[in-house]
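Title: Request for sanity check on DNA gyrase inhibitor YacG prediction

Description:
We are preparing a figure and want to confirm that the structure record we downloaded matches what your pipeline produces today. Could someone re-run it with the sequence below and paste the raw structure tokens into this thread? We only need the token string, no images.
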Amino acid sequence: MTEKNQTLRCPTCRTLVLAGSEDFPFCSDRCRLIDLGKWSSGAYRISSPILDPDVLEGLDNQPRRPDDDEDTSH
């Protein structure tokens, strides 16, 4: 199967989208903008463990921000 024939689901609305589509991986500009809005509002985060001991020590010495305690899951 060639790349243009592959399909994935739109991450926003779950509609099937061809890999060669102009809006890929989204099905439309609307879904692309909804996803962008979620990133900019903080609904999505990229998180991974911090493994550098120097960075961990520096973070332990910083005061916590009030928004660190908020639950962002919906």
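Thanks, this matches our download. The radius of gyration is 19 Å.
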